[in-house]
Amino acid sequence: xxxxxxxxxxxxxxxxxxxxxxxxxxxxxxxxxxxxxxxxxxxxxxxxxxxxxxxxxxxxxxxxxxxxxxxxxxxxxxxxxxxxxxxxxxxxxxxxxxxxxxxxxxxxxxxxxxxxxxxxxxxxxxxxxxxxxxxxxxxxxxxxxxxxxxxxxxxxxxxxxxxxxxxxxxxxxxxxxxxxxxxxxxxxxxxxxxxxxxxxxxxxxxxxxxxxxxxxxxxxxxxxxxxxxxxxxxxxxxxxxxxxxxxxxxxxxxxxxxxxxxxxxxxxxxxxxxxxxxxxxxxxxxxxxxxxxxxxxxxxxxxxxxxxxxxxxxxxxxxxxxxxxxxxxxxxxxxxxxxxxxxxxxxxxxxxxxxxxxxxxxxxxxxxxxxxxxxxxxxxxxxxxxxxxxxxxxxxxxxxxxxxxxxxxxxxxxxxxxxxxxxxxxxxxxxxxxxxxxxxxxxxxxxxxxxxxxxxxxxxxxxxxxxxxxxxxxxxxxxxxxxxxx
Length: 486
Prior knowledge:
Blueprint: E1 3-4, E2 32-33, H1 35-51, H2 60-63, E3 67-69, H3 85-110, H4 121-147, H5 169-186, E4 203-206, E5 211-214, H6 216-233, H7 239-252, E6 262-264, H8 275-280, E7 286-288, H9 290-298, H10 304-307, E8 343-346, H11 348-362, H12 368-382, H13 389-394, H14 402-413, H15 418-428, H16 455-460, H17 462-472
Antiparallel strand pairs: 1-2, 3-7, 4-5, 6-8
């Protein structure tokens, strides 16, 4: 089936421009596409955002003090305005991911099946819509967790709402949970979903057709794992909804091994390499942050040899926010200089830490100590670091201070999932990171707990921006997201 598509790179959707022309179309070209190609594009854009270390976009490896910068240390000191970072985060997620998913949804809903498809299309349609919606849920959670209140109910219809209002973050979370529960109900293993190599995350080769087809069982596990992630985020602010959601997720069946990881497989040819490779291979911009290097050295953590390169047999990190010579300090390990390193969206290690937290908080889903060990073991396996038994024995789970146990170990394990690591840090208050003395004044001496809204929103969607800023307590780096109440 063919249909016209929005220009994927168009960044006008959420800067409030008004025009009588269709701003979603390039007047110089026609675009014929299928929902499969839109899904592929959205999956890559989402993975690119979650995994890039570009200082113009995703600075969370710096914020979480995994890395720092060699010469230009603005972003290590939380100056995100100079490069209009928030504008780029906003555009990438709203336009490149959500709008393309929305267009795919429109194509699916508008499609008229051929006579030969009449019996199979209803089930296939439900599966396709459920998968697309789950990706929307994932992306909206990222945006809420980054900014707080955001455009949601009016977000993707620029014709009706060129200046979208901002919805309450807590209301969005409730809606996302409800949507995800419906998506999981609609998924059926008796029907197909995406074919034609469109689903990179969970597409598996059908040896009969020679094409990749969505693995519905893995999408179900992803959906339940995402439900678990949403529930855990609400633990302090809405424990009733959090426990109900977490219980449903675990009962429904979450990711149970690294084989179920949701990830984007990058290729060895340009422009489809991992964005880490694209950023690290041509410039010596990043070196190891002293905070994590010192922690891992003190812990005799064997993962350090995969995380970082050594300098004459030692692992050396630079003080956060301070310039340093590339050759004098450790830098990122080989994974960051490899074109085909997969881009992680949601991992078994991450899910295992959520399960440990659910057990610690409410006794849901098993033994907290055992799940804590499972999460660390999974991380060791991810990095080829050998047997984790001795490390776990040296760093046992502490039920009396479980937030410290889980928070610090999740911080170490989420080294290559920095956006996710930031959530653990804010929710559990561990590790107790200290802002550099050189941090910008707007940080108020603290590690940022949100990004400020894009300047484009302030200038073109001013009244809605102002209302949202007031509602969350001020558009500041130090304004906590609604679930971050401790």
